[in-house]
Design goal:
The protein has 128 residues and is an all-alpha fold. It is 89% helix and 0% strand. It is built from 4 helices and no strands.
């Protein structure tokens, strides 16, 4: 028998040889996957996952800070709104008071124009 035939027979025939080839291919693929998954300080999936987690944590902190600031600003807006509404009620009340003063003034001093005109017509008569 030839050397090649002896090796094929020792490996279990061509079926055994194909099994060895498949095993070697699986081993090579497993090593490639292991290299991608194992941390290597840069390009591995593990390193990329770590970077993503760190960025998510940083963004989460930023979001919490923004939410806190927004809550404070919302409270300030509510206080300012209450103050504006209070001032609006005061201005409305002052408007009513001014209206009442005008009515009283018109009632008490309504005849002033007539009295002044009467005095003005008498004034030239006295100067003569």
């Amino acid at each position: 028998m030839s050397f090649t035939a002896e090796v094929i027979t020792a490996l279990g025939g061509l079926t055994g040889f194909s099994t060895v080839v498949a095993s070697v291919a699986t081993l090579i693929q497993a090593r490639r996957i292991h290299a991608r998954v194992s941390p290597n300080h840069g390009s591995s999936i593990s390193d990329a996952t770590q970077r993503i987690e760190e960025q998510l944590a940083a963004h989460g902190e930023t979001i919490r800070r923004i939410e806190t600031e927004q809550t404070k600003q919302s409270a300030d807006v509510l206080i300012a709104r209450h103050s504006v509404e209070s001032l609006a009620r005061e201005v409305k009340g002052l408007g009513h008071e001014i209206g009442d003063l005008r009515v009283t003034r018109d009632r008490e001093h309504g005849d002033y124009d007539t009295r002044i005109r009467a005095l003005e017509t008498l004034k030239p008569a006295r100067q003569k």
